[in-house]
Protein 1
Amino acid sequence: MSLDEIPNQIKVSLGRRGFDPINPKQCSKCGNPNQSRLKLLEKIEQDKVTHEKGEKRTIDYKIQCLNCQNIFYIRLQHLIHYQDDEEKRVTTKVNILDENKNDLGWLGNY
């Protein structure tokens, strides 16, 4: 269990202008991007949800910023769509949540 499980770069939609890369590993309160000042407290894997065309796996990473003591979550939702018996397409949505797990918004995809 480490912050290395979270991608270093995700793509944020800029509307008609394409996508912009950002680093999701930063404090949601003070903006601290220094990974040595972010502490991973817990990794929470939720039950897998399966449907006829694929599945969804959700993982929440509980993180504390050592600069401002803010606790927040980074949520990765892996959406797996089966196209044929063997082929699959994976999209991962990245959201930021506050200490009470209130969704603060969608950051982007990877």
Protein 2
Amino acid sequence: MKEIKRREIELLAKKCIEHDIPLKLAKDLLRTAEELSYQNHSQGARIKEYQELIDFHSRNHK
């Protein structure tokens, strides 16, 4: 299990570097997507949550 998790992080880091995305943002988006997938939220609510995360990390990344 640890090997799979380590490999996922390596791949995520590689893609983040390629697209100039903060790794913390990508991890937070994935974690939020997993959490919201188990809850009964509308698509609009999920998009709003993702946008808030992106805005937060955009301000902190500059």
Protein 3
Amino acid sequence: MNKKLGTFILFLLLSSTAVAEYRVYQYYVRAKDPMPQDKDAYLVTSSLNPTSYIRYHGGDQSIEIELLRSWMCKGHTGEFKKYCSAPYDSISAPNIAN
């Protein structure tokens, strides 16, 4: 009985320290057979991986994507929360004087 209680308490302690993370992808999306409303390519940020994104949006017969970049975010993605910003956005170019 005491061993089961100890295992249960250990399980509770370990489960409360779990941290979720997810990957964010940024794509350049083009329609393969552009209709008037889809004639221009557009930039998309999604948590769907490339294969899932293409399949979810009609398959490779309807769209083509170009993966531009991806990054990891920590935390929960539910309740329509915004994705974390890309780490590249916070990098500033060095000021180089001539």
Protein 4
Amino acid sequence: MKNGWLLTAALAISAAALTGPGFAADLDVIAPPPPVVVEPVPVMVPVVPVVVPVVPHIWLGHFTGGARTAIPGVMDWRDEFQRFASRRECLHWLHALKRAYRAQEGFKTCLPIR
């Protein structure tokens, strides 16, 4: 009889558990859905080589010098600045001004500014 009592108790507990008020369907309660976890997808950015434009040098030519005029004691004095794309162009410009204004020597140079 001991086994029969134990079997009856087990059936009563399982029946109560399956039909009891513990189920949402029995109580007409709507359970919320489980939360959805969205994991961000890593963004893959393609590596593009950066092309740096070659900036050409710019040369600054500076010339000071004077030339005689027809009036005694008066000099045609020049203080000129000019920008060039190459040192060769700058030196050519200086040479031309040195020939034209050679009476009084002044300052002459070509400087890279970029």
